[in-house]
Amino acid sequence: MKDCAVIILNWNGRGFLELFLEGVVSKSPGCDVVIADNGSSDGSQAYVRENFPAVKLLEFDKNYGFAGGYNRAVSMVGNEYVCLLNSDVEVTDGWYKAPLAYLRDNDKCAACQPKILSWKARDTFEFAGACGGFMDVLGYPFCRGRVVSNLEKDSGQYDTVSKVFWATGACFFTRRADYLANGGLDECFIAHQEEIDLCWRFNARGRYVAVVPESSVYHVGGGTLNASNPYKTYLNFRNNQLMLYKNMAGMRYVAVFMLRIASDYLSAVLFLLQGKSKDALAVVKARKDFHKMRSSLSLARKENLQKTTVTISNLNGVYKGSMLAAYYLAGKKTFQELMPNKS
């Protein structure tokens, strides 16, 4: 057994396996490659067995979602380190070496990611993670290389290792022990922002998260849900509220909660004005379902706050103002304009 398992979660993604799995296997000689199949019905399992006999195949009885599938897979492997890798990622030569070396050399680092570039526009950062994730005072995520929907060209402007708030689930390196000890991905999220929630726990409990841009991969993005799918809108708005409730304490949470009510409903109105009525309804449903789910997470909130040793104002990767206000009102479209000291 090698010390790192690259775990690819698959659900009816045979097309991506045919496109990218050979490259992952050939370019990851220092890792065990594992396919965790979430009950696919498209022949994915047979394809892996027939074409990649050296790849470990975990076959689940149904689709447990992104969070549930990865939790089951991580619990079933015995490697010291794991990399959660999306099936729609093209890796590069030596892609895993720098992130793993960084984890080995930095005990306080709980998770890291490489630079995430777009598979479709290869000189451009990809939406989901770019060059490391940040969060603003209201809980909205953004990245080095991606603010709102503005994706920057990669010209080496973010090629330094940096502490960040979150690492993307598209290519997420961590120690298996850290992952399990901190509860893994929250399965009630199903998908979207569950990695940010986990990274918040890492940060709040005295560890940190980093981006290691010496390594890079290319991400297709939207392999399961594309950006125009209202269900994606629903998950992002609902899960962001769940994350804030689970992790943010005291009067700060109350203030953010009130501001986010106004902000989220304003987003719904803007969707309507853009002719995106289904997205507007998704935002409203997300708010309603958050209220229904909140009580079921009260114990998780209590545990998180009890284990918090670093308050949000002192966490890495938090922008002290409103990212949306800076973007739409002040015209700050790039990360360098938003946080010049963190570039």
TrEMBL record:
Pfam families: Glycos_transf_2
Keyword flag Isomerase: no
Methyltransferase found in the keyword field: no
Segments forming domain Glycosyltransferase 2-like: 6-113
Keyword list, A-Z: Glycosyltransferase, Transferase
GO molecular function: glycosyltransferase activity
Lineage top rank: taxon: Bacteria
Classification via PANTHER family: GALACTOFURANOSYLTRANSFERASE GLFT2 (PTHR43179:SF12), RHAMNOSYLTRANSFERASE WBBL (PTHR43179)
Family: Belongs to the glycosyltransferase 2 family.
Name of the molecule in the record: Glycosyltransferase family 2 protein
Taxonomic path: Bacteria, Pseudomonadati, Bacteroidota, Bacteroidia, Bacteroidales
